[in-house]
Amino acid sequence: MTQSHEYMLPDDFTTRIMQTSPVGIVVLDADGRIIIANQRAEKILGISQTDARGRYYNAPEWRITALDGTPFPEQDLPFHRVKNSRAQVFDIQHLIRWPDGREVALSINASPLSDPESRFNGMVATLEDITARLATENRYEMMFQQMLDGFALHEIITDDTGTPVDYRFLDINPAFERLTGLKKDAVIGRRVLEILPEIEPFWIKTYGSVALTGTPETFENYSKELDRHFHVTAFRPAPGQFASIFSDITRQKKSEKALIQSQQRFLTVLNSIDAQIYVCDMKTHEILFMNAHMKKIFGKDFSGQRCYTALRAQPAPCTFCRIDSLLDEKGQPTGVHSWQGWNPVTHRHYMNYDRAIEWTDGRMVKIQVAMDTTEMKTMETELLEAQKLEAIGILAGGIAHDFNNILFPILGLTELLLESDLIKPEAEPHLKEIRKASNRAKDLVRQILTISRQSTTHTKVPVDIRPLAKEVIKLSKATLPSTIRIAQKIAKHCPLVLADPVQIHQILLNLITNAFQAMEDEGGILTVAIKPLELEKDSALPTSLPQGTYISIEISDTGKGMDDTVLGNIFDPYFSTKAKDKGTGLGLSIVKGVLANLNGDIFVQSKPGEGSTFTVILPAAGTDEAPESNGLETPVVFGSETILVVDDEAVICKTIKMILEKSGYKVIDFQASPEAFEAFSTDPQQFDIVITDMTMPDMTGLDFASKVSKVREDIPVIMLTGYDKQIPKEKLDQMGIAKILNKPLSKSSLLEAVKDVTQ
Predict the structure, then answer these.
(1) Is 0.85 topped by the overall pTM?
(2) Which CATH superfamily is domain 13-136 in?
């Protein structure tokens, strides 16, 4: 059994409490004099125990003021309030200034003392030095009042389930008023839904979570009611409350939005340009952006990949890369760097423009704008080819003129000999061969002029293709190597076609030459097949020609063949799979154009390793009779007119004179056009016809004809030319030129022309 002992307080218990108390304790008598003060009170009041006793609380040496330094009413002093009310008072705050000028801020709690008769007998009070606390509070208040960020203290309001539904304003700082436009007097003590009834639920929900869980939040959000963007930090200072510190970031958000819009406009502009544009990191070569046109060309977006790998199929940065030269030593852009190149991925030529720019994330990047110049390169090539062809044409025209001048007397004199009695019978066949060869040479000149684009005159006549094909084959055999053999499959009977024999010769020669070149390295068999063809309406042949009777010409080889890519471009101008010195790429395009003019068609069948077959289809002419070309000519009616003949070639003048005089005409000839014009001007009425060469020194045939026409408008002029030259009919009429004849011309052609202009 535990023995209980009554605890006895020591006699000095009260004294011990007073001396160890952390607050000052004083006892005043009924007159307000200090009769007891503990050590803490002595330190707070700045006096010793001896000085304290008998000193009045409101002694003059203690200057008592309110905390803000204004006079403190005597009736509000703790002693007077306790004495007058006989009740306790709490936290009465004021300043006491010591004689030495030091100030102490006090918080005083006091209670009245009574004698046995309940009469006021004095006061006991506790003194707390709140100087340091007030200084801290003042500093925080100053910060609260002067801080640039808005601050607000709230209490959360919940429903019966504890869900946040509203909150009440407890305090705000001046920055809150400035940033929101809401005044302190209008919000303190009021709920947010009273002030901003359309406020977004986000605010109540987020703040409620902070107040109820104590978990702070930092976020950015837009307030529609205030039309402001805010950056907010919210925390819980006490359960059920939350404080928010926020800044207005509306201008920043607008700037960000404007920047984003500007970037979007920039990217939109890049995407709308029909050029290949990409942006890459200048250190890693990583592609950051490809515009829409470039994605379409490459078939995908290579963003995130290395530019040299994705765009040029290279394992490392390109040796010609310009990235290192796009920035100077200070990191500033050095301007635009342009260069031309061929891309091994797209197989196209480009003009590239590189420069450094600041990208949307602030870093310096390379932007490249690539303009596809493939078509321009092709046009340059075509222009060069056209210029070469023009040069060839000019050369061919000159050669044709000279060659035709040589042929003219050969052909003319041969015909005169054939009609004369001067030759022996055994010489006649030889003269006919000379005439035949001369006509063949004349056709060859026409072909040269056709290929060189100097001739546009194509007379369509019924043509038997078979002898022409055999002639081309015979001509080709002389140039073929022994490793290539020609097989002929030419039908015995074929309808004629309506065409120019020279053009048919050109088509056959082009196709046979292509077939030969396809087998040039390894040899093979070149097959020429010609046969009639009845084209049905639902024919399986790859042609859109109408049904009817045609001739089919097939030129086949056993060469390397062609893939689909080559087949798709085979008839394009300047397209060629041959070396640059093996052709211009014009042959098949010319063939296709000629066939289109003849209402024919051409198509090709080929596979790699299986050779190729070109098929030409030409419509039948509807007649089985071909015109005679080398037989004796029809006799011409004789005349008696006087003819002025002008040509700078003496042999041509002589030939023309012999032909005309044999037919009864009187001829006066000149080899110099100025002398001829002088003779004509002296007596223009003595001449009935003028025959002049076109190309002559001193005065051309056209100038001569023009002058003659001015002297005598009614005289007919026949112009002779060594090559086809198209002159507008209006110009011919102005010069009085009735006919143009191409050298070399036959005797009958000359006489018929003379007869025509005199009728």
Answers:
(1) no
(2) PAS domain (3.30.450.20)
